[in-house]
Amino acid sequence: MIPGSRHPANDAWEALLSAHAAAMKQFAAEDIWGQVSIREYDVLYTLAKCAEPIRISELHRHVLLSQPALSRLVDRLAGRGLIERHPDPADGRSVCLSLTGAGRAVQHEVGRSHARSVARAMTAALSRSELAQLETICRKLAEGGPRQ
Amino acid sequence: MIPGSRHPANDAWEALLSAHAAAMKQFAAEDIWGQVSIREYDVLYTLAKCAEPIRISELHRHVLLSQPALSRLVDRLAGRGLIERHPDPADGRSVCLSLTGAGRAVQHEVGRSHARSVARAMTAALSRSELAQLETICRKLAEGGPRQ
DNA sequence: TAGAGATACATGCAAACGCATATAACTTGC
DNA sequence: GCAAGTTATATGCGTTTGCATGTATCTCTA
């Protein structure tokens, strides 16, 4: 396959990659990530969304990191007192995770600024209906299409 | 800001992140990345798209990596004979990059398989018009919106 | 209910990354 | 035309990553 437009699917993927990279760079450059890296924040955010503690393997589904890397990232966050590890009553192999008070505080603090800059960047580039379309389409893609 | 839906812009961004992570994992898991990592392929692909040699700083705009990391990635690719460094006649600080024959061959070989699996995944999840919408919207986002 | 295989997480280790900073080359104001 | 500031890339160094593999636990089949 020669680079350059060949199929709408590939062009769409390439556009998504570019948008992701551009937006990530912009967000990463913001001066709001005090003591947490973006990847660490991603974990705190994912935990904050969950009412119940979740397993590392569940967390792994949301994070673009190898399992060992995630295992150690969790280690570091736990070491800093931002998250807690619990044994899973239903499965002795699993480790369940939840935010500590401090972790929740950090997530709120960083999340407040980050959410603002996300909203600013997205609404500057896209209309309300484009935002809605993007969300719908990306959800389908994230779920892997019709099959599965 | 409390996690969970608050603003269409944030929901759209979160969906884009999920789609990106899910698709990247799927692509990374494919057994097609012989001697190159995905990030290395990204560089080879970007160079393959360009008719002319491009600067490292130009390449850096397309790649989600710090400048030093990209500098060393270029080092490794050049060391393996996949890309070539040229001095820039117009600017003594710059380094211009182009694919070697071997680099082009690797890009074609890996690109063939990768493009196929991208097309498979994207068309399985999205209709033709959704693909077109996604491309349009992501291009706008990548270019940073109306201003700029 | 044992034994084989699968699954969840952890760890050793080399490679790769980011941050801070160095070096070299360009640009600008005077 | 030169000092002061900026830009493009490289390098030192501590941290983080991925791969291969280890350990513990669960599941499934006979």
Describe the structure using short key phrases.
homodimer, 148 residues, mainly alpha, 3 strands, 64% helix, DNA-binding
Describe this structure in words.
The structure is a homodimer of 148-residue chains. Chain A has 148 residues and is mostly helical. Helices cover 64% and strands 11% of the residues of chain A. The first copy, chain A, is built from 6 helices and 3 strands. Chain A has helices spanning 8-29, 38-49, 56-62, 67-79, 101-125, 128-142, and strands spanning 54-55, 83-88, 91-99. A 3-stranded antiparallel sheet of chain A has the order 1-3-2. In chain A, strand 2 (83-88) and strand 3 form a beta hairpin. Chain A is globular and about 50 Å long. The two termini of chain A are 28 Å apart. The mean pLDDT of chain A is 93. The interface between A and B is large, with 63 and 63 residues. Chain B binds a DNA duplex (30 and 30 nucleotides) through residues 37, 39, 55-57, 65-76, 88, 91-95.
Protein topology:
2 copies of one chain form a homodimer.
Chain A: H1 8-29, H2 38-49, E1 54-55, H3 56-62, H4 67-79, E2 83-88, E3 91-99, H5 101-125, H6 128-142
Antiparallel strand pairs in A: 1-3, 2-3
The structure holds a DNA duplex (30 and 30 nucleotides).
